Amino acid sequence: MNQRRSILLWLLxxxxxxxxxxxxxxxxxxxxxxxxxxxxxxxMDSPSASHLFELWGADANNVFAGGGADDAPMILRxxxxxxxxxxxxxxxxxxxxxxxxxxASDDVHAIGDFxxxxxxxxxxxxxxxxxxxxxxxxxxxxxxxxxxxxxGRAVAVxxxxxxxxxxxxxxxxxETHDAALLDIWADDAQVFAVGAQGRIAHFDGANWSExxxxxxxxxxxxxxxxGDDVYxxxxxxxxxxxxxxxxxxxxxxxELEFVPADIWGASADQIFVVGxxxxxxxxxxxxWSAMDSGVSEGLQAIWGASADxxxxxxxxxxxxxxxx
Length: 324
Known about the structure:
This protein is mainly beta. It has 1 helix and 28 strands. It has one helix at residues 3-12; strands spanning 40-43, 52-59, 62-68, 73-78, 83-85, 96-104, 107-113, 120-125, 130-133, 145-148, 154-157, 161-164, 169-173, 181-186, 191-195, 199-203, 208-212, 218-226, 229-235, 240-245, 250-256, 260-267, 270-275, 280-283, 288-291, 299-306, 309-314, 319-323. The strands form 7 sheets. A 4-stranded antiparallel sheet has the order 1-28-27-26, with no helix packed on it. The radius of gyration is 18 Å and the shape is globular. Residues 14-24 and 30-37 have low confidence and may be disordered.
């Protein structure tokens, strides 16, 4: 099983499963959330009870969520009005999606595994249907995260870093390592990959280097406003934390009272963190503040079309929408 997913799933199953429904944007359920912000989070109707580990969108009307079902990988699509389950084929038994990325609504990729950590599958969506792609059999580690790059390229992490050139995947950094890399963020010049044992692999545009925030930390998520303004979130032996890179070094920014699973931002002053127990944290450029998600389900992924149009997904088909 994908290592990021298996670690977080074990943690998130601890959270209570009570789901509070709330009203707001198109596609959302009823009942109001009492929130300090002008905008608020709302629960969305989900066509699946599968755990949803991944989110990516081409725009606000083309958002994809991925996860696992009993008999096939689960991919959902939001069209601006409702979520619908995608047909991905019947020959992928007991498989789960761990990565989704794309260039446009008619050029979307999904990668996952069959739970054994070695056998992988790769799907492509052309705007009408999903078809299987051929993945190099030499890739024998599950992909934990992907990041789209310009010109149809992408990067992904296992315990190594891989690059997609528009046709095929190839390893570009690292050897098979006990400390898996669990998430990745990149801009036009730099790449940051984070993972177990506090591991951070950084490409500065010319060279790769290895850093660590401490061996007792597992870093689950990374996102940057720029190459010198990068955030990572993770769990340590005694506490969870947000870390920050200022272009020169990493430092602990603040402790968290919950286990974080993912981080995403629209800009340097609009950043969201999601995690265990339905917790959501928001940074407005000056202050980090807790947001009322209205759910207690563990949240695993977050993505937004803008700071006022953000989606989150998690256990048991949980889908949330934040809109202004």
